[in-house]
Amino acid sequence: MIPQTLVINILAASITLTDSIDALALASIELTTHYSFDDNVIATIVAIDEKSAVSTADPLNNIVFKIELRDKIDNSLITQMQGRLFTSGGAEALEEQYPNNFSYIAGKLDFYGALDSEYDFFESVETKYSAAQAAAIKTALDTIGILNQMGDYRTKSKTIAVPATAVVPATADELKRTLLDMKDQPRYLVCAETDNLPYIESLAEVMDKTNCHVMIDVGNLTSWELVTAFAESISIDDHRLTLYWNPNKSRPSNATTVLARKKWRPCVGDLLAQTLLRNARTNSSGIPPINRPVAGYDFPLAFRDMEKMAGVSLDEEAQNALASAGVNVVINERFEGGDRWIYGDALTQYDSENSALRLTNSAEIETYTTNLVLSIVKKHMLKGMTSFVRDAQDECSRALDACVASGLLVLPSELGGLYYLLQITPRADDPFSKADIKFSRRPEGCARQVFFEGTVTK
Question: Rounded to an integer, what distance in angstroms lies between the CA atom of residue 379 and that of residue 383?
Fold first, then answer.
């Protein structure tokens, strides 16, 4: 994504937030980020005079700026920063001029640009002002109405709109490259955009290369025939791909009145959140409970006042067709003690009548154990071949034993009483530099069908 530049310009009688430095600005704060903004982002700016001693070279070092970016719809905080202005040059100039004064550097707004880590909101921050105009800048801050004294009861601030970002949609190839170039490889990819099949194909390519999972919401549809047709159109026969359909509407999560109309919303955001929360409940061995699929009674949707959309039919024919297409539907089920809106199935897009890989939890166990073995094997690469085989086999076995104890793997009928079979051996055609890995196991399944037979006796 092209970086977005925001500049806070302090003028003689006003303060602006634009995408470039104003030639008339007495001081400026230039922020560069890779995040994008819509029309609902606002910035609140506060300046506080701490009355501390300053030098002639940096006469505004006693003015602390506090900047917050918020969503004006729900007032949620997006990011915030606090610091002082620097005369010019950004983090590099600070480091060059004050190499032995870290506390001074860290007190500047420019320091936020020096952090330069993957999760920083701003890639660079550069403030600029002339020492000769310090008095004029203080007067301007007071005129604008954002200058506060230490201990003021009421805080004076200015709120201005953040310019919306002109977003150019990434191509399918750009999307694929971006995901593959990420430092942390994704474990889950979520898609709620079904109108762009090249995007879905790109996600499938990333899924195949990184051995992750893709969750797709089929969209705002009221016909199960259209949903099954969509499932057939993507035609990706893979256990790592799952489809979800929410044929219901609900109120916004932050609704405070019944006047907030019920609308359709995709369910994959809730699904991903519940999946990550489940994965966070690791045991003492650090293994998540992925043997439990995110579906059914224990994972209800928290959407408010849900009801089925008009025109939706989920009769027996529809449910059988959706299950045959591998589509997991959000439905209302009655349980002992009440009813719940749940993910009513746990099916992947793997086309099989009886394979474990058609179940979401079995598919997750398959990818988890595969990635676990491969990540351990990589640790021992470039060792001597004898050490590699011994060390990789031993560490993989310990990790897989923990998976067995955690309930991820169950006893198969084909491995002679073993829960898994892992063989790491040098290749016959090149035993000096190449090795083969053979890995067999049976993942835990889930009960998705019950055949009931009842009898009334004397």
Answer: 9
Name the phi and psi angles at 85, rounded to 5.
-80, 150
Token look-up 């993507």 returns 234
**3-class DSSP assignment, residue 47:** strand
How many CA within 13 A on the CB side of residue 45? 26
Q: At what angle do helices 197-210 and 172-180 cross, to 10 degrees?
A: 20
Place of tokens 């590099």: 92
pLDDT digits (tens, 9 = 90+) for 41-64: 999 999 999 988 889 999 999 999
Q: Is the dihedral of CA 192, 196, 197, 202 positive or negative?
A: negative
DSSP assigned state of 108: B
Q: How many residues does the chain have?
A: 458
Model confidence, pTM? 0.80
Cβ atoms of residues 243 and 349 within 8 Å: yes
**Which residues are CB-neighbours of 28 under 8 A, at least 6 positions away?**
7, 8, 9, 10, 21, 22, 127, 128, 129
Contact partners, residue 416, CB within 8 Å, separation at least 6: none
Percent helix / strand / coil, the chain, rounded to 5: 30, 25, 45
From 184, 191, 265, select the one nearest 230 (Cα to Cα).
191
C-alpha–C-alpha distance, residues 170 and 328, integer Å:
29
Give me the half-sphere count of Cα atoms (radius 13 Å) on the Cβ side of residue 316: 0
Chain centroid to Cα 267, Å, comes to 15
Residue 172 burial (C-beta neighbours within 10 Å; 0-12, 13-18, 19+): middle
CB distance 379 to 265 below 8 Å:
no
Mean pLDDT score, 326-344: 95
At 255 the pLDDT is 65
Angle of helix 224-234 relative to helix 197-210, nearest 10 degrees, comes to 60
| Residues whose CB falls within 8 Å of the CB of residue 70, separated by 6 or more in sequence, listed in order | 41, 42, 43, 44, 76, 77, 78
Give the dihedral sign, CA 414/405/276/393. negative
Q: How many whole angstroms from its chain centre is CA 149?
A: 40
Provide the mean pLDDT of the chain. Answer: 93
Do the Cβ atoms of 51 and 61 come closer than 8 Å? Answer: no
Lookup result for tokens 């405070």 = 256
Distance, CA of 122 to CA of 178 (rounded, Å): 19
